[in-house]
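Case study 2.
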Amino acid sequence: MLNVVIFGPPGSGKGTQSQKIIEKYGLTHISTGEILRKEINEGSELGKLAKSLIDNGQLIPDETITEILKKKLNTLRNSKGVIFDGFPRTYKQAVALKKILNKEGRDVNIMLNLEVDNNELIDRLLKRGQISGRSDDNLETIKKRIKVYEARTAPVIDFYKSEGTYRPIKGTGNIEDIFGRIADALDAIV
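Prediction:
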């Protein structure tokens, strides 16, 4: 079973590249962002909490997001593996994911880190906001999200480096070139 963490700052292309990985490798996609947006659209208590935090550029508490992930993983049967998109976002979440997977005799096989500079991220997210209408894709919130990423999420890289599963991926260029670099990294371990 292939377990992949796709990682990178907001706007680095995680969702786009996840779809390409799913198509080629047949993995199950778990996007905590999609799960949270669904909760927000349904107006659930979790959705209301998530919306207030997301609109202010903040992260959902570790315990909450870990429970969501556990619940989702328990629904998966006969999967070739999982691509984790948007999780883990903190060091504590990375440790929790390792524990969850290890209980089933599995682990993260590779962490793909999409590397994109901040100016490119801001441009991409502003364009996405114009197209999708996402409320969190405005300049003020984007800058907050990047700062939160750098302060709280980037340390996850050190966790996966120590695990020996970290792979940096140049996240700029056209979508197919980026995916080619990802496929090279995945093909080397499958």
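The chain is about 60% helix and 15% strand.
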